[in-house]
Each structure stands twice: as structure tokens, then as C-alpha cells.
């Protein structure tokens, strides 16, 4: 769908009485394959085109979307979205960015962010790689079963055009794998998995080595023990420590602040982490999954410290929630084709610390290294935290044995204030963190 057609849709919406309107058009091309027990289970090639149209009339907004982009259906969508906007409740905070906000928008070149992989793997290559990923794990004789492996490559093109003059087009790729296998013996059976998402296919790594490592991780967990309920220091492995940043984002989302359901609602400008702790949201990193020069509403994005030297600096917002809080737009609006804008992070990460993970382990008299989290019971109103976990028990600086069927509990206020990062930060997801040490948590066992 070219630019002229989007302009025509905006003109039709204006003629029908829309004060403001915007259009999102997306083309998604995906190749994916899954393997289980050495055999290809499913190979898919899909191409989806979808359009979303938002209309705003007298501070009433509605949105419609469809994968049918024939001209007749587009006309029907225009009629429908206008009629819907006339009857929905008024929202005095809805609306596009002011023209002067868009006029300040610098003319960035999206290609500078290096978000599109020029290499496109073939179906044959995807199939061969996903089998290598799983088979390299199955070659280990202690692996008794597999939940399978999946591998995919996607290319997405977005066009956004709005009645306030904002217009952009961006092309992105991402590649993903996931694998999960089970090790077993006469006493126990344990599962291990790995998952990674990258902009460039080649950055997924060596599939054979990934599969071999997953098999070793599963075997290490065999003959796990239960532990008694106790208080203990806990290390969250870098594979799962980013979940704490996801919890922080949820508590710092302006929508939660507005509803009064966040334990951080009155903490902006206050110290919530230790001195020296910095948590960064950086939309301008090259070859990163969530990089962008502007958000979904045309607001220029900037690298920002969510936490600077331990102090909470801002709440994530979109235009609507910024207006409700009488705050400046933070440049974090995100949306799909079928949704109105809401706040989201870009590349959110906890800066690495100065301690090596092995030194953290050596420093522990007694403690737990958590390598997997399951389930979730988190009360964002007061910060109470409880999650199922498994990992390895540590005594006198040595890993003694694997543990399972335990609960890690505490309060996010305390967890954040005592968190100590290691130096093993890697960027494999949208939210990234190094391993972190949290002292004196409650472990629920037998």
C-alpha cells in the first residue's frame, strides 16, 4: 500500500467529520519451522498485510483493523470507524500529537539503526538449522525426551500516517529460536530450555553449540533436592534476571500510576536502588530489537535513565497518559495495527556491575542460584513478590546440588533497594540484565 493511498484514506476520514485520524499499515513475512525428536513437525511460510484506522471526533475515538485491503473493504472500514467514533464515550485525553511537537521531529534515517537483516534464510536452511539445534541436544544419551525446537525469521514493514502531518516508514527483521529438552535417570527427570531473539539471523549463534549446552544444563539439574524453608541470599541468573526489570516497568507504567495501583506511584525522584545503579532505556542502539527514532505517536525518542544512581527518574507514558498526569511525553508510545497507543519500553537494560558471577558465588556462605522462574504472584499495589523457582544450592562458595519445587519470595521495594549486579550483561531480548544478587530473601521449601 503506497503513500498516496494512505493519504486518500485520511482525506475520506476528514470529509466524514473526523477531527483527527491516523493509519497503520503492516506487512509481515515469516518463515518458521519446528522439530521434535529429530523430525520436522511443521514448516510455515506466511505473508500477512493488515491495516488499522483510528478516527477521533469530538474527543471520541475508535479503531478498526482488517487483513482485507481491497478498496471496497477499505471504504467499509472508513464508514465503520467513523460511525463507531460517534457513539463511544468521550475521552478528553485522547488525540494526536500537536503539530508543533511533530514539527520538532528531526529527519532521521531509519537505516542508521541497522534494523533490517539483508540476508534472508531459505526454507531449507531454516529446516536444517532447527534440526541441528534439537539433534545436537538429543545426541546426549542422558536426554530422554524433547519438547521440541522452533526457529523463525520475520521481516516486517510498517507505514504510519496521521492527519497532524506525521508520516514514517520502517523496515525491520527479527529471528528467534527456542528449544526445550528433558534429561532423566532412574531417580528424576528435569527440563532445560534456551531462547534467543535477534535482529540479524547470524547473531543467533552456533545452533549445534546451543543444543549441546541445553542438554548439559538439563543434566546438571538431575537428582534435584528440596530444601527447608529459610532466609537466604539469592542470585538471579542473567537468563532470568531481566524479569525483575519487567516488574519495574509494570510499576513505572503511567497507566498504573493513574489508577493508583503501583507501589512506586509516589516514588519518582526518590532513591529506590543502591548508589551507582543505572537502568537505561535506549531507543538508539544499533541492531537491537526495539530501537526507534520516534515512538508510535511521532514523538522523538531519547536515551534516558529510568534509574540514575539509584534514583527513579520518570514514568513511561504515551500522549494520553502524559496528559492525565500533566507530564511531558516520554516518547514511549507503542501500538499494534489493531490497538490505540499505550506505553512501552524500548531497549531497557540494567547496566553491568563490577563483580564477576563466579566471585558472587564464591562470596556466599549459604544461598541459592536461581536459573528458572515459574508462575507469578506479584502484587503491584504493595510490591509483594512470590515466584516458583529452581536452581542450585550454594554453601561456602561452592555449588553443591540442584534444587527444585521452591518459592522465592520478598518485596520488590526491598529487592530493588538491595540488588547488586554482576558484570555478565548480554543483549538477547528487549529487556536485558546481568545476573543480580539479592540478600536475605525467603525461600519456601519443605
Question: How does this structure look, described?
Answer:
This protein is an alpha+beta fold and 446 residues long. 22% of the residues lie in helices and 38% in strands. It has 10 helices and 19 strands. The chain has helices spanning 3-15, 71-87, 99-103, 123-138, 207-220, 242-251, 254-259, 319-324, 357-362, 412-418; strands at residues 20-36, 39-57, 60-66, 143-162, 167-184, 189-198, 230-236, 279-281, 304-308, 311-312, 333-334, 342-343, 348-350, 366-379, 384-395, 398-411, 420-421, 431-432, 436-444. The strands form 4 sheets. It has a 6-stranded antiparallel sheet with strand order 3-2-1-4-5-6. A 5-stranded mixed beta barrel has the order 7-14-15-16-19. The chain has a 5-stranded mixed sheet with strand order 10-9-8-13-18, covered by helices on one side. The longest helix has 17 residues, at 71-87.
Shape: globular
Tally of DSSP β-strands: 19
Q: Give the class from helix and strand content and strand pairing.
A: alpha+beta
The whole-angstrom Rg is: 24 Å
Give the terminus-to-terminus CA distance: 61 Å
Percent in helix? 10-25%
* Secondary-structure element order, N to C: HEEEHHHEEEHEHHEEEHEEEHEEEHEEE
Task: Tell me, rounded to a whole number, the average pLDDT.
Answer: 96
Q: What is the number of helical segments per DSSP (H or I, 4+ residues)? A: 10
| Main sheet attributes: strand count, strand direction, barrel closure | 6 strands, antiparallel
Strand order of the largest sheet: 3-2-1-4-5-6
Strand content: 35-45%
Amino acid at each position: 500500500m503506497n503513500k498516496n493511498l494512505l493519504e486518500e484514506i485520511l482525506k475520506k476520514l476528514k470529509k466524514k467529520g473526523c477531527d483527527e485520524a491516523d493509519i497503520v499499515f503492516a506487512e509481515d513475512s515469516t518463515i518458521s519451522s519446528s522439530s521434535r525428536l529429530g523430525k520436522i513437525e511443521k514448516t510455515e511460510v506466511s505473508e500477512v498485510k493488515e491495516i488499522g484506522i483510528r478516527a477521533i471526533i469530538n474527543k471520541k475515538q475508535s479503531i478498526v483493523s482488517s487483513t482485507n485491503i481491497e478498496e471496497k473493504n477499505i471504504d467499509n472500514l472508513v464508514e465503520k470507524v467513523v460511525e463507531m467514533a460517534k457513539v463511544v464515550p468521550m475521552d478528553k485525553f485522547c488525540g494526536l500529537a500537536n503539530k508543533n511537537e511533530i514539527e520538532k521531529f528531526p529527519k532521521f534515517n531509519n537505516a542508521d539503526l541497522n534494523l533490517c537483516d539483508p540476508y534472508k534464510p531459505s526454507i531449507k536452511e531454516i529446516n536444517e538449522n532447527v534440526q541441528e539445534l534439537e539433534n545436537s541436544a538429543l545426541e546426549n544419551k542422558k536426554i530422554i525426551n524433547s519438547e521440541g525446537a522452533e526457529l523463525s525469521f520475520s521481516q516486517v514493514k510498517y507505514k504510519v500516517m496521521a492527519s497532524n502531518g506525521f508520516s514514517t516508514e520502517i523496515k525491520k527483521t527479527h529471528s528467534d529460536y527456542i528449544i526445550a529438552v528433558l534429561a532423566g535417570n532412574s531417580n528424576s527427570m528435569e527440563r532445560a530450555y534456551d531462547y534467543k531473539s535477534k535482529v540479524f539471523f547470524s547473531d543467533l549463534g552456533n545452533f549445534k553449540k546451543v543444543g549441546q549446552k541445553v542438554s548439559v544444563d538439563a543434566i546438571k539439574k538431575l537428582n534435584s533436592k528440596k530444601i527447608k524453608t529459610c532466609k537466604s541470599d539469592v542470585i538471579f541468573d542473567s537468563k532470568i534476571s531481566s524479569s525483575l526489570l519487567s516488574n519495574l516497568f509494570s510499576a513505572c507504567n503511567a497507566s498504573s500510576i493513574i489508577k493508583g495501583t503501583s507501589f512506586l506511584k509516589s516514588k519518582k525522584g526518590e532513591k529506590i536502588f543502591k548508589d551507582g545503579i543505572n537502568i537505561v532505556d535506549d531507543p538508539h542502539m544499533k541492531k537491537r530489537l526495539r530501537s526507534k527514532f520516534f515512538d508510535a505517536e511521532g514523538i522523538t525518542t531519547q536515551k534516558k535513565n529510568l534509574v540514575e544512581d539509584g534514583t527513579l527518574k520518570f514514568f513511561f507514558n504515551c500522549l494520553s497518559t502524559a496528559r492525565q498526569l500533566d507530564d511531558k511525553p516520554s516518547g514511549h508510545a507503542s501500538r499494534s495495527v489493531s490497538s490505540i497507543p499505550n506505553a512501552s519500553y524500548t531497549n531497557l537494560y540494567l547496566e553491568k556491575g563490577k563483580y564477576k558471577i563466579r566471585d558472587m558465588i564464591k562470596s556466599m556462605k549459604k544461598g541459592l542460584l536461581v536459573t528458572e522462574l515459574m508462575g507469578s504472584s506479584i502484587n503491584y499495589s504493595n510490591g509483594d513478590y512470590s515466584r516458583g523457582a529452581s536452581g542450585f544450592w550454594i554453601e561456602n562458595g561452592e555449588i553443591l546440588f540442584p534444587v527444585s519445587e521452591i518459592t522465592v519470595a520478598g518485596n520488590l521495594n526491598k529487592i530493588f533497594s538491595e540488588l547488586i549486579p554482576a558484570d555478565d550483561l548480554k543483549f538477547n531480548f528487549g529487556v536485558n540484565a546481568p545476573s543480580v544478587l539479592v540478600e536475605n530473601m525467603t525461600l519456601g521449601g519443605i
